[in-house]
UniProtKB/TrEMBL annotation:
Cross-referenced Pfam families: DUF805 (PF05656)
Keyword Transmembrane helix in record: yes
Organism of provenance: Aurantiacibacter atlanticus
Top-level taxon of the source organism: Bacteria
Keywords annotated in UniProt: Membrane, Transmembrane, Transmembrane helix
Protein name (record): DUF805 domain-containing protein
Organism phylogeny: Bacteria, Pseudomonadati, Pseudomonadota, Alphaproteobacteria, Sphingomonadales
Keyword Cytoplasm: no
Entry's Gene Ontology cellular component terms: plasma membrane
Membrane-spanning ranges: 25-49, 82-102, 114-134, 162-179
Length: 197
């Protein structure tokens, strides 16, 4: 069922017509979440390797703890742009890969695919916010030795409502994704059968 759902959805990436069952949709979403997690994990490897290497170099050169801390935060500041861009690109691709499947899932409940605009727009806003915050995140890391600056920047980043808008899209996907199928043929097609059956 898991592999059949993945194959079916990947074969229908641009098909916004018809209906998908809950199980077909959720197995595919699970696959996309696993892919996103693995990419995020792989993207963090350069950051971990870079900071570990910087820590070892600093320790071998006899730096003080404060100097080591500054060097580590500088290294993380260098890497934050790369990791953010990888995250942003991954999120955009995953969103696009899920779009048609979500549209078909909406159809299964009798809803228009236009409801898919909610997660699409909130994800776009979250991506935009992430890009605009790269420089502020770098500043926060570069001034990490100054607790007052770090706290002010962290408060500014978390107080921005854009940092939470993505949750609206996630709630829409969960809500519509969990709704029961219409038990009979509707305007979008016949009752779907799970792939492989």
């Amino acid at each position: 069922m898991f592999l059949e759902s993945i194959a079916y959805n990947l074969a229908n990436l641009t098909k916004f017509t018809g209906r998908d069952s809950r199980s077909t949709f959720w197995w595919y979403i699970l696959f996309l979440l696993i892919v996103q997690f693995v990419i995020g994990l792989l993207a963090s490897i350069p950051l971990v390797v870079g900071t570990t290497s910087a820590a070892i170099d600093a320790a071998q050169s006899g730096m003080s703890e404060a100097q080591m801390e500054v060097q580590l935060f500088n290294k993380m500041a260098d890497m934050v742009g790369l990791t953010t861009w990888i995250s942003v690109i991954t999120s955009a691709i995953i969103t696009l890969l899920a779009l048609a499947s979500f549209g078909r899932r909406l159809h299964d409940g009798g809803f228009s695919e236009l409801w898919a605009a909610i997660p699409l727009m909130t994800q776009a806003a979250t991506i935009y916010f992430s890009i605009t915050m790269i420089d502020k995140a770098k500043d926060m890391l570069l001034t990490a030795g100054n607790a007052e600056n770090t706290e002010a920047l962290a408060a500014q980043m978390s107080a921005n409502p854009m940092s939470y808008i993505g949750w609206i899209g996630y709630l829409a996907v969960i809500t519509f994704g969990m709704m029961r199928s219409e038990p009979t043929t509707n305007q979008y097609g016949e009752v779907p059968k799970a792939p492989g059956y």
